[in-house]
Amino acid sequence: MTYPSVYPTGVTVYNPEKCWSGYTIYQAREKGALLIDMNGAEVQLWKGLHGFPNKMLPGGYVLGHSGERNNAFGMQDQTDLIQVDFDGNIVWKFNQLEYIEDPGEEPQWMARQHHDYQRAGNPVGYYVPGMDPQVDKGNTLILCHKNVKNPKISDKVLIDDVIIETTWNGDIVWEWTCSDHFDEYGFDEAAKNIMSRDPNMRPTGGDWMHINSMSVLGPNKWYDAGDERFHPDNIIWDGRETNIIAIIDKKTGKIAWKVGPYYDSSPELKALGWIIGQHHAHMIPRGLPGEGNILVFDNGGWAGYGAPNPGSPTGAKNALRDYSRVLEFDPTTLKIVWQYTPNEAGYLHPVDSNRFYSPFISGAQRLPNGNTLITEGSGGRVIEVTAKHELVWEYISPYWGEKLNLNMVYRAYRLPYEWVPQLPTPTEVPVKRVNVKTFRMPGAAPAGHLRETTVAGVRGYQGDTALCVAAGEEASE
Length: 477
Description:
By secondary structure, the chain is mostly beta strands.
């Protein structure tokens, strides 16, 4: 796909009558935690509060981190996880996972947090009616890194994923290590072969699983009906490098439920389709439309271990797809309940599918009115769509990184205005979609001023018909 070099940023579409309006928080590249209103006005910036991701709590509190480990010695390791008030004062901090003594660096305690965390009171870290996260007490689940050796996986050092639970005072009261459960993930011999040789090696070790989201299931209808796999305390996560979504039994640590790493072993999995490089898999909490279903941003791109193929000569990252999907599916039947794919976005499949495509980061949040907030992260685009797939809000981040020339947004969250009582409720002004067929930049010739001449004897252009035929669509003269 070719992107334009100049395009609008900020809010480009806003329909107040169909949106679930509130503030939106995201990490503005190299700036800090940024809070915007529905018209894109920047109402608060917590400068220097970085987020992997940033999340808001009731009362104007924000979670994030204050620093990152030198990448020469770690990968995506955040030094701490902190909570600040509206004025930026630190009111809670955790960094006591590991004492790090990197060469040439000041020794320090680190959290090695990455990708996700959850505060008690709310299972998923975004607004759920009646489930407010705690702000001055409660345990916190944190996704972290540890370096390990596990000969079942590889003889190389692994950057392993661990989940810890800490008290408000910073005591670790529960811990789970991903590599300890290698035999439960169902890898075939081809996958084990390439993983042993190349467990997604980075300069500091093998990022073999790369868990990028983690949340609690919370109360749900499946457990109420007697299905122990979905105990409210159990934890769901997804592994970007393996195409796995799994649920941990909190009491035993064992895998209670999963899909992946393969999606061709049953009719149900084949109908679900290959989930590749996914992010932000979670169970929609009770109190929101679709409660109990799994919501996930299925990135596509490249991920998985297995047999070599033309797109993967070694078998590393051997599942490939050049477009994204947002899926909501029933975890008991694997049936897709709702989705947002290039088709629903209005693009011609497969010719134009990569116009909805973020091969890394990204996420999805179910809103109380049934809409879905989607972070199409690699292009810095955040959209709100209705259950009938109508786009009713669109925002493009205007913040590009200096080291990486990208305006990417890791994950954005919508929250109610009342969670930030320090600010007045903003005025909501509709933003109508610009007609790109007639819009011109200032100074350019306006549309409709073109002199036209009809050439006699020339038949009408058949290019669109040819595209339809190429895409396998019915076409007629």
